[in-house]
């Protein structure tokens, strides 16, 4: 695995300690890794593949709030504060993970400063990301919200293809609209306008950005 995120912050000795305390497990695409409200405390380090993080709303909807990839950690909050899981995690493709029981992970954090520091850096990064999302997506016209959302997805998951950037979209159109705090119809109209302007093209579960500079301008 190419080290990124939490895993990249660990020294080789700390990675070995985590691996020694863990069980390796695989999940198939579409399988639920954990559910919001679960009491079981297990910390997972993604070795390969991607998962999406889904929150349930009071009116029964599900909102995709993040995507994690190889090297990322999930479930650390439930291990630290001993509260139920705060979100549902679903495999976007076939994934492999290291699963560490929550109490063992807490012990590792208490006895291995590099591990606890890596967790702190992860939490700090996620907090900043949430703040940016609220600033970028939380207000403004529909076109600006969608442009900001696509820009964020491009930064997180975009793959360069010549002068273009292709994004494997980790959510349905309805879920993306909810995340952008707008109706599905408004989201569809905004993306249709972007297609007509030649800024993007779309396919099944994918968006290709052709004019990144223009998308940045629209998002600002």
Describe the structure.
The chain is an alpha+beta fold. It has nine helices and twelve strands. It has helices at 5-8, 12-20, 76-81, 102-111, 113-137, 142-157, 173-179, 184-196, 212-219, and strands at residues 23-27, 32-34, 42-48, 51-56, 62-68, 73-74, 88-91, 95-101, 158-161, 164-168, 200-203, 206-209. A four-stranded antiparallel beta sheet has the order 1-8-3-6. It has a four-stranded antiparallel beta sheet with strand order 2-7-4-5. β11 and β12 (206-209) form a beta hairpin. α6 packs across α9 and α7 (173-179) packs across α8 (184-196). The relative contact order is 0.14.
**Which segments are poorly predicted (pLDDT under 50) over 5 or more consecutive residues?**
none
SS class: alpha+beta
What's the shape? elongated
Give the termini separation.
Answer: 36 Å
Oligomeric state of shown chains: single chain
Encode the helix/strand succession as letters. Answer: HHEEEEEEHEEHHHEEHHEEH
Key phrases:
single chain, 220 residues, alpha+beta, four-stranded antiparallel β-sheet, 12 strands, elongated
How does the SSE layout of this entry go?
Layout (H helix, E strand, L loop, with lengths): L4 H4 L3 H9 L2 E5 L4 E3 L7 E7 L2 E6 L5 E7 L4 E2 L1 H6 L6 E4 L3 E7 H10 L1 H25 L4 H16 E4 L2 E5 L4 H7 L4 H13 L3 E4 L2 E4 L2 H8 L1
Antiparallel strand pairs: 1-8, 2-7, 3-6, 3-8, 4-5, 4-7, 9-10, 10-12, 11-12
Helix pairs in contact: 4-5, 6-8, 6-9, 7-8
């Amino acid at each position: 695995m190419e080290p990124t995120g939490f895993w990249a912050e660990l020294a080789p000795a700390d990675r070995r300690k985590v691996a020694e305390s863990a069980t390796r497990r695989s999940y198939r695409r579409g399988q639920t890794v954990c559910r919001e409200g679960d009491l079981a405390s297990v910390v997972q380090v993604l070795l390969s593949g991607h998962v999406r993080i889904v929150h349930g709303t009071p009116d029964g909807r599900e909102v995709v709030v993040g995507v994690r990839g190889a090297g990322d950690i999930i479930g650390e909050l439930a291990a630290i504060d001993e509260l139920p899981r705060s979100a549902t995690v679903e495999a976007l493709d076939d994934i492999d993970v290291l699963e560490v029981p929550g109490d063992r992970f807490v012990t590792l954090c208490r006895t291995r400063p590099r591990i606890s520091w890596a967790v702190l850096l992860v939490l700090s990064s996620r907090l900043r990301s949430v703040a940016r999302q609220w600033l970028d997506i939380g207000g403004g016209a529909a076109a600006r919200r969608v442009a900001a959302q696509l820009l964020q997805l491009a930064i997180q998951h975009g793959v360069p293809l010549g002068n273009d950037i292709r994004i494997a979209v980790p959510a349905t159109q309805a879920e993306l609209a909810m995340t952008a705090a707008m109706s599905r119809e408004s989201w569809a109209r905004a993306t249709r306008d972007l297609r007509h302007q030649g800024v993007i093209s779309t396919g099944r579960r994918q968006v290709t950005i052709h004019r990144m500079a223009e998308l940045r301008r629209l998002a600002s």
